[in-house]
Amino acid sequence: ITFESDRDGNREIYVMNVDGSGQTRLTNNPGSDRFPSWSPDGTKIAFNSDRDGGLDIYVIDLGDGSVSRLTYASGSEQLNGWSRDSQWVYFSSSDQDISSVSDVYRVRASGGMPFTVAADKYETEFFAAPGPDEGVIAISTRGNMARGQWWRNGHAHIDEAEIWLVEEGETPTYTPLTTGGKNNWAMWSESGDNVYFMSDRSG
User: Fold this and answer.
1) Taking a C-beta distance cutoff of 8 angstroms, is the pair 67, 59 a contact?
2) What is the SS3 assignment for 12?
């Protein structure tokens, strides 16, 4: 299991066994290291960090302990997840859009130029979940405020968000999966036949 903790004064990345034993710190720097995500093949951990100023994405190679920086844009890059083959890291960023509206990108885990996945000019797109089939992802969209707040009772229409299916391509194909309420954090079943998500649609 990988997790973040500020037990040593600032947020760092740790790993531990499923019974809580063997807790080991993997990062050690003055920046804030957060939101770790294990690659499906178990060889790497991606995470967000502001160690170089802005919020960027980094990868730890668990074989040799080396840390590599994947993103260099002036905006903030929010880690979303891994492709099933562990070759790509997906993230959302507002660097190329307007009014803090974010788009979804992917970058090779080995580094390189990020590729645009979903970039509607007037809709925010975030919380990307890569599916088992290459080039198919589920995303949250429509509700820019939906990323930062959650109501204790009921919900507000101003921050409703929807889950959409995106098929990558020169012109991406969008298919709506949900309506009504705030719908976020899509997650695929192992078979790829189902998409699970959280929603406040029932109040």
Assistant:
1) yes
2) strand
Q: For the beta carbon of residue 149, count every other beta carbon within 10 angstroms.
A: 11
Helix ranges (H only) for the chain are none
d(CA 203, CA 198): 12
Burial 173-202 (b: 16+ CB within 10 A, else e): eeeeebeebbbbebebeeeeeebebebbee
Q: Are 97 and 104 in contact (CB under 8 A)?
A: no
Each as own residue / partner, the long-range contacts of residues 96-104 (CB below 8 Å, 24 or more positions apart, any chain) are 97/121, 97/124, 100/124, 100/144, 101/144, 102/78, 102/126, 102/144, 104/80, 104/128, 104/137, 104/139, 104/166
Strand ranges across the sheet with 24-25: 2-5, 12-15, 24-25
Q: What tens digit of pLDDT does each residue of 61-101 get?
A: 999 999 999 999 877 899 999 999 999 999 999 876 666 67
**Residue 135 CB neighbours (<10 A):** 14
First to last CA, the chain: 32
Residues 157-197: pLDDT tens digits?
667 889 999 998 888 899 999 988 888 999 999 888 999 99
Task: Please give the helix or strand (H or E) that residue 77 lies within, else none.
Answer: strand 77-82
Q: Please give the structure tokens belonging to residue 178.
A: 């949900």
Which residue matches tokens 């804030």?
32
